[in-house]
Every structure is written in C-alpha cells, then in structure tokens.
Fold each of these.
Amino acid sequence: MKIAGQISIDDIPQNYPLVSRVVNSQYGEKGTRVVEVAGVRFGGERPVVIGGPCAVESHEQTVGLAHAVKRAGADMLRGGAYKPRTSPHDFQGSGLEGLCILKIAREQTGLPIVTEVMDPRLVGEVAQVADMLQVGSRNMHNYTLLAEVGRARKPVLLKRGMSASLCEWLGAAEYIAKQGNLDIVLCERGIRGFPSGEYSRYVLDLNVIPAAKMLTFLPIIVDPSHATGVSAMVEPASRAALEMGSHGLLIEVADFSMGVPKCDGLQAIDATTLARIVEFAHRSEARSQKSGVRRQEPGVRSQESDDGSPKEERPTSGISKVVVGASSNQNP
C-alpha cells in the first residue's frame, strides 16, 4: 500500500540519487568516498577519532583539553561554541568568544576543528573558524540550515536525528549534496527507544552502520557519548562501533580537575580513557591490514571481460533487497 509522504529503502535511488550507492556506480558495492578535513581522511583505512569538550566554556578549559586530546593521539578537536539545550535556561555555549577560543586551540595543537552550527544566519561566521561544520541531531530536519551548510563548501558532519529513520537521514544528506557539496560524514548518535533513560540515554543503533554502507558511499562515524549518556559505557561502545565497521568516533572529553562540565558531564571521559580508545582504533586498523581486509577507496571496481580487457562492475539491485529483507520483519 502506498502512503503519502512515506519513503522506503527501495525509493532511495530515485529520491536521493546524489548520495545513493546504486546511482553512483563508480563506488561499486563497497567503495567509500574519502572526505578530507585539513589532512584528516574520513573513509580511509584508518578510523578517525575526534575528542574534546561538549561545550566551549573557557579558554583554560578548551585549550587545556585540546592539548590533552592531542597527547592521547586523537585526530581532531570537537567543541560546541553554540549548543542547543533542552532547557532554554541551561548553558548555551560561549558563542563568538567560543569560536575564538577554538581558533586558538587549533593554532596551539594543530588539530582541525569540528563545531556545531545551529542557525543558517551564523553559517558564514562559524565556517570562518571551523574546518568541519556539524549539523546536530535536533537540526537534522532543518532543511534551510542543511542547504546553507551545503553552500558553505566546508565538509559537513551530519548527525542522525534522535528519532530519524535511515531514509530520513539520507534525505538530509541529499539536501546538503544538492548544493554541490558531497563532503558529508554521517554520524550515528543513538536513537530513542523504549529503554531510553532506563539504563542509557539513547539506543546506540550499530546495525545502521552496515545498512548505511549498503545504501550510500558516504563515510559513517559513531558518537558513543550521546548514545550512552554514561561515561563508563563510552569505551566499550566505541570498541563495538569500530568492530561494526565505523569509520571513526566522536567522543566527549573532560578535565574533571577543573570541576564538573556545564554540559553533559556524566557522559564525558578523561584523556586516559580516550588514549585507550585511540590505541584500540589503531589496533583495529592494523588487524584489518594484517587480514588483508582494507577499506576501499573511491573508484570503479572492475574485472576482466572474456577478451581480457577490463570491464566495469556495477552494483547489483540486491543491495536494497538485502536491507529491505532485514527490516521487513521488524515491528514499526
């Protein structure tokens, strides 16, 4: 039965052709588009680890954590100058001052910055400082913002909405791609389910990683901090995400000697824990190389034809059928 406004996985090539794997046959069945951010490569052989505070609170806090993240071996610095909060009375970030602090942190450590932009009117301002623009979970459906970040010509980290389906998530990516920007990294950050709030903040949907890879060539990373909401769960969730094929991690880090963070302190880990996660990520890369399993770079997969000349191998329609078959038995 056809229902107005409903899009299924089978509709993705027609509705979201710019990010569809089937339509973009140059990536084959498993190839990933490498998104480069100031020398850091998402979708390459090495998982990317991003660490830093939830929110930029002060110069001392952010710059100090940037150095700690650097020593831990992480690749990029995260930190919110502008923060969407459930309560309008909670700390909302440091705004323009926070952007200036992030710029200083990058100058001192060399770590590229990813930070969230919430308002289409602020995209230009944030893009002047950020190496990568983040669209948060609450703004995944903000189509005006998605179009504006697409026009900014900066790599975009697109978080999954907390109640969004995979189809809706890829639809948001299509809005960015429509502006001529395919430098998009997807980020799974947990979705709402009936256990949410009972023993974890959200439900970390690791099943979406292989499903997304079947449908799109965009790299995908995981935010275990928001997904769990519990600092003790972040490290095992990070390991599980990497084992499921995540191209990287986005993790909140805090220096508790400076007091409890103003934003989401219960889900932040310390730099020592971050260093263990980075070490595991590097071992994960080494295991993949040793076993001969490598993350595929963009390019057309080919095989020899009957006369010995190379011929193009296109993805089969079975990609969507596999996912549809896996999801058809689930309850709505």
Amino acid sequence: MKPIPFCERQAVTLRLRQILFVPPAPLVFAQHLDLFAAHGVDVETTQTLSSDHLGQGLADGTWDVGIAVMDNVIAWNQERSADLRIVAQLERSTVMAFCGLARYRSLAEAAMQPIAVDSTTNGFVLVLYRALARAGIDWRTCRFDPVGGVRQRFEALAAGTAAATILVPPFIDRALDSGFKKLWSGDEIAPAYPGVVVTARAAWLRENAETMVRYLRALLAAGAWAADASHRDAAIAALVAARYANRAAERLVRDPVPDLAPVRSGFDEVIALRRECGLLGSREPRADDVIDTGPLARAAA
C-alpha cells in the first residue's frame, strides 16, 4: 500500500481508546502500516486482564471500543446493561483449542481437575460447556478457576498453576510446543463460532460517529492491503512479528473478512450456545438489535 499523501490526511486527529485481549490481524496490519494516524485517529490500546475487566470498562465508559467475541457483547448487555453494539467483525472464525497436561487422555479426565477459564458466564467457556455435554458431563458439576484472559491462562498453564484451559493463537502453538496436549478443537464443537468483533456503546457511537468511521476505514484499508497477493509475505511477517505462529499467520492472511461485516450465522451459533447451557436469559436478543451496520456502511462509502 502506498502511503496516504500528506494533503489527503485528516487535518484534525480524533482520539479513540480501545481494549482487547490479543490484537487481531486487521489491527496488526493497520498498526504496521500506520493507517490509524493516516486516517486521523489516535488509537490508545490497553490489553485486558479478563473479560470482566473489558466488559465493565466498556459499560462504564473507561474505554470507547472493545475487541471481543460476540457472546461477550450479548452477556455484557444482559448482565451489565452495557447497551453495546457490534459494528464490525475482524476474523471469520475463532480458532480455539482445549489444551491440558500431556497425561490427560480425554476431556473427562481433564474435567476431574479445576479448569482455568476467563468467565463462567460468557465467551469461550460456552464452547467448553457444549464439549462437556457431548462427553456426558454436566458443566455445573465441574470446578472452574477464573484465571483471566487467554494470556493469563497460558501463563498459568506454563507455570503449572493450571492443568487445562481453552487457548487461541498464538498461544495454542506455544502450548503444544511446550508439551501440552490438545484434547479438542473449536471447529469440532462449534464450527460456526465467529471471530472477534468491534463493539462500542450505542451512546458513544452516536456522539463519536466520525471517530468510528475513521477507525473502520483504517481497518478496511488494512484488510485490502493484506488481501493483495503481492503483500502476502509482508502480511504474514507482520503477524509473526506480533507473535503469531506461522501457521496461524498464514491462515489469517488466507481467510480474511474483507468487508468486516458481522456474520449472522455466527450470531445464531452464539445464541444457540447460550440457550443450550441455560445462560440466555428471559429475553432473547435479536441480531438487528445488537449489530449496527451503519458505521461500517459509512466507512466503506
């Protein structure tokens, strides 16, 4: 991608505070190419300690934008009255794996010990609940240790203070390289589980429409750059520099979400998971009430 000429750059820089677990591919590309600055938005990034930390910070306005999974958004709206909206999807699907001690021969054996999780009411744990149900295990009979986000869970696994947990790239490969065993993959349990999304409070979106449009334009430009076959090696290198394993980097470059549009099948999968484990609540959310397509449409125009 050619640099945006100075005369085409935004004269006024707008500020955006975001919080996330692991930087997803479009964000890595945008930072690598300095696209946020080129589009006139100063992005301040915080790495979260847990989903509770992220969700509460969005609900109370500590941060403007969060990068999370769809189920987080649904749960935070239900539990914290956060009034969040999903405005973009940054990955087609979530690659996840349940990893544990090398001696474990099955999920049932791993479930006899405490399982390290982020939250017990939202996020990847819902996929674990489905896996347990398929193994004939009621998740309510298991013990869970709320360790925190994926980095904290990997570190607990590596330090020997956790025996099993769900991981995502780049931590899956790091765990396997360290001798831990993969007991199941997410695509075996919840193949339609969606990738991470961009979310913000509805009130913030109304008051900061231009900031969000600039932010999304930078991400769209980043995706377009990575989709160009001539940039394939550079895109993979950028992800590897961000500590993604080569296999994960190649997959992300090969299978992007070019228009960043939230996928309805992913939303439906999340609703199904919440319904299965009894965490849906009395009022089932509708996709049209949670997904706001307006900012992305304006960004792409």
Amino acid sequence: MTPELMEAGARVREAMARKQGDGTGQSGGRRASYGSVVQEGVLDTRHGAILYLDDITVSFDGFKALNALSLSISAGELRCIIGPNGAGKTTMMDVITGKTRPDAGKAHFGSTIDLLRLRENEIASIGIGRKFQKPTVFEQLTVFENLELALKADRGVRSSMFFRLNGEQLDRIGAMLSLIHLKDGAQRVAGLLSHGQKQWLEIGMLLMQDPKLLLLDEPVAGMTDEETERTAELFLSLEGSHSLVVVEHDMKFIGELTQNGRNGKKVTVLHEGSVLAEGLLSDVQANEKVVEVYLGR
C-alpha cells in the first residue's frame, strides 16, 4: 500500500473512532444470547462443528470416488487431509462447494445450513472459500488491485464501477498485505510474482471475502522451502478466526502445521473414498494400514 493511501486510511479511521467513541458498534452494545433461536440459513456453530459430512457417496461410472465418507470439522480448527491419489480428496471438496452432487449422504455447514440444497455461488456467499492447487490471480493487475477487486466480488457491475475504498477498507487491505508477506510488493504486477507469492495473493483474495471455512488444495506445491515455512506460519495464524481444511502431500509441511502432533491437531487419512485413519500425526504415521497404502516403509 502506498504511503498516501495509508495516510488517508489513518485519517478516516481516526474520524470513525471519534464518531464511535462509545464502542457499542452496530449491535448497540447488545450481546447475542446463547438461548436465542437461530434462523434457518444462518451459520450456527454452537454445537462445536462448522462442517458435517455424513455417509457421503459419489459414483462416477460405477467407480465410488467417495464411499460413505463421514467427517466433522470443528469451528476454528485446522485439519490436515492426506491420502494417495484417487483417495477422494478433491471430490470431497467438490461436494462441499457444490460442484459435485453426491448420490447419497448429508453435508451441513454448521447445524442449520444444508449444503446440498445450495448452488456453488450460494455456498461461496455464505462463507466457504476454496483455493485450488494452481493459483488464479489477475496477473495484469497489481497485488493491491487484486485485493481491492476481491472486496468488490459481491457487488454488481454498476456498483463496482463507482465503488471507492473507505478508510476501513484501506486498512483491511494494508493488514492483509502484511499477513500474506506482500506489503513491500503492493504495487507490483501480480504476473511478476513468484509461484509461492501468487499462492499467498490468492489466499489473501479469499480472506478479503471473510470466509468462515477455507478449503486449501495442495497450497505449497511448487513452493521453495522458505515459502513453505512462511505458508505454515500464515495458516497457523488463521487458526481460530477461520476453520481450515488443508489437503496436502508434503508431509514435512503437515508436520509444521501440526508441530508433529505436539499441538493436538488431527490428521485425517482418506483411502478409496472413506476415512482410513484419523488422529495425531504420530499415530497416523504409526498406523500399519496408512504406511501400507500411502506413506510406504
């Protein structure tokens, strides 16, 4: 972000702070009651889980890509998913995002939102973001402009044409540039970034839309060791404020995310469309079936 934009953001932020000096915000200081009734279609994670998959089955020409898959992800959790090629990892994410409709089973976002009743764009709008393995950024635009465009993603064509960043939005972009390690390259054309930096930029673009659940498909493929380490730091910083499902083959990266099992994070192993094993990384690595079908000896 340029110094001029930072200064403009600071001035507006100060004005907003004076105006909202009572600190009540839009809710008027009221707190939500845990005894309140949650409306249908509103994300409810009071029972702990943000994603429920129950007996999901998907078949392609007789081949079961998913075979009665059941999985639960807690709100704020960082879950790593591993498994051999063809295990069903991509199909699982396709079901969650509405790209693929299962033959059987249930999929819920929180306890109130039935994902199988929604289209892809509707699922994206309720707070589920997906990052594919290959980065998809607007290479002709600058890093800053890519993040700015992400803010406009839910606006119509006409409103986007007249959209102007306010101070709060400038601050959000500035904070995101720091988070994704691209603050010094804000005005750099995205096409000139390294592969790893493009991955970070796309993650930043997703985060600008404030998703509650992030699905990340092999996010460190093709990265340098330093970029991989920084990506692990980024994901760990997001844990808690976001829920993350990370599909990855790089076991060193999985080890960094889970601190080799010391932080209690679960690792789920998929094989032939269902859960083969689940638990701490050390337990998964010691599982004879996992060693046989995936890790090798």
Amino acid sequence: MSNDVFVGLDWAVHTHAVCLIDAAGSVLERFEVTHDHNGLADLMRRLARHGQRLRIAIERPSGLIVDALVDAGHEVFPIHPNAVKASRPRYRSHGAKSDATDAYLLADLLRTDGHRWRALAPQSDDIRALRALVRSRDDLVAARIAAANQLTSTLQAFWPGAAVIFADVASPIALAFLRRYPSPSSAKRLSEAQLQRFCKAQHYSGHRSAAELLQRLRSAAAGHAGKCTERALAEAGAVPVTYQSGKTRSVAFRWACNHRLRQAITCLADNSRHANAWAKSVYQAARARGCDHTHAVRILARAWLRVIWRAWTDRKPYDPSLHGNAAALASATGG
C-alpha cells in the first residue's frame, strides 16, 4: 500500500471529482471522470500511476464505483457527509462548496484523521446482490407508501367517502372501486345491491356488509371540487401568493410549487397563443394591462388550467364549441 498518497473522490450522479495529495498535503493531481464504463476505466488508469493500493476517501459506503475500487485492491474509507460538512471551516471561512474543493477536503481528512475511519471490507457477489435487492425493495415500499399518502390526500379533498369505504386505500379492492367509480357523481346512484355484486366480483374478504360499506361512503364529508381547482392553480404556480398582516398586504411570485407542472402548463400556454384565438386574446389582454411576457403566460396558463380541470372532472375531451369564451370569440371574428 502506498502510504504517502491520499485520494479524495467527491461522488456525483454524472461526474466525479478526484484529488490526490501527498503526505505533506500538496496536490499531486486533480481530474474528473464520468460515471460510466469509460470514466471508471480512466479512473483506474490514473490511480495506478500512483500505486497499486491507495487509500481513498469517499462520502458513500456503497455503490458501483465503491465496489470497483475495493475490487481493484484499494482501501476505501467512507466518511459521513456530516463529518465533511463540519470540517469545511478548517479550510475556508466563506462556506462555499465545490466538487473539486470537496475532493481535496476528503483527501486531506484522510491524511490527517485517517485513524478515525475504517476501510471497507471486500464483499462477496451474494452479499452485493442481497444488498441491492433489499435496497430496491425499500425504495419500492417507500414509493408505494408515498403514492398511497398522495392518493389519500387527494381523495380527502375531492371525495372523502372513497378514502374510507375500505380499510386501506391502497388495497386492490379500493383501487378497483376507484377505477369503477372515479368521482362522486359516478357513484351517486350506487345501490346496496350493486355494491354487493362489486364486492363479490372482487372477492372481498372484509367483515363489513354492503350496507355498512355504503353507509361509510355516504356518511363521509363532502368533497370540495371547486377548491381543488384553486389548489391545482397554486400547485402549478399559476397564481401568486398573498402575504397579509394587519393593514399590510402584499402579493408576490409563488416560488413554492410543482416546478415541473408549472413548466409544462406554461409551455402549453405559450405555444397555444400562436394557434388558438381565445388564448391569443387572453395573452394580449394581459400584455395590454402592462404585464410582461412571463406574467401574461402565467395568466393564460391559469385560464387553461380551469378549462383542463373542467374537462377532467367531466371526463370529456376539450371541445372548443363547449368553451363559452372561445366560442363567443370565434363567432365575433367569424371563425
């Protein structure tokens, strides 16, 4: 093992920063490698120039790059990110962070405090496969719970009865019920006999009768579909946020929102004004009121969201002839 070379590797999703220093802390080499086969091969070649068994510090205890380094005979020391964060003031006071400086910091921590950490022991292929399987399962369970929580939250606002009719909203029968009855209006005429036939077809094994289930569905609080429209507008960042305290009131841009949804709906709105007369008129009216381009696009996006919400709740495709403002404009312009 080379005792006078210390390596810091700042891991990232696409590119890893690497820094090699000597026993005095002087930089021997800095470089970056991509997170792919060629990048990993380049990393191994560069490390081999400085020794066959180097000590390498990294902020993660597992992963393909860690396994490859251990298999190559290097000693890999995982250092907790909190330890790295706490050590930054030793090297700079401004608190800034970069991949290159973190790679150096990792290498120098290994040089000065290497006795505080233990190197990873090589693991068999079976252990690695088991580790990957367990972690994948954990990720899937977490995703399932998150999806169930999101579904519960949506139903509590839109249709509380569907969230409580069965014990688990994520159970197969609860999901089948939502597919069969996706809205309160679709289940408005649901009878006890129909619900009993549905439960029988789904092999329902619960202890509640169809009458009890129907009572749970009917007795839940009513949803607020109208309010959901406003929530959708806020979620998409299409409406501003209002701050009010006493006599002071201010309106500001909504930063906290679903950024992907905002990008999608504003992209739709911006493109629609070139092909849709109603969208063009909404945009031009906003510009005439003094709004800049991005503000006008958000106003148009808000208008489109209300149309989309209506089409979604009605379970019907968008029909310009049913869009009152668009139809009136078309009639006025002879379109």
